[in-house]
Amino acid sequence: MNKLLLILPLLLIGCATTYQNEGFSGGYTETQLDVDVYSVVFNGNGFTSLERTKDFTLLRSAELTLKKGYKFFIIIDSSSFIDKNQGSTPVQNYNYSKQSYETTQQQFTVSKPKASNTIKMLKSKPANTFSYNAEFLVGSIKSRYEIE
Predict the structure, then answer these.
(1) What is the three-class DSSP state of 76?
(2) pTM value > 0.85
(3) Are 135 and 71 in contact (CB under 8 A)?
């Protein structure tokens, strides 16, 4: 019964973070920095790859651009990393030679990826700077991850 209580939370959150607003298992947030400048952050959980986290940060950047009435955006600044947290949990094992239970500590590491973009939204495509076409990017990333 004790093992079931330890496993149950893992079963409930045992999959990669979906594309969603920030919640218990991760997701995106954004902060407006200026009229057309936003910081977009996506936090993954221990089952989310860094690549997926970066893609979902781009997707949110593109969706936000369209929502605010713009068509293109440039990334002013970006970062991504994996936050590693270590911990331990007690585990009971039966020692047959002593005919008793022993409690030991089992070590674990949880890796949570995080990515952020600071974006500037644009009404038209700039001539001398790389920019993302927000509508194209939304379609491309949603298709890749089968998001409706």
Answers:
(1) strand
(2) no
(3) yes
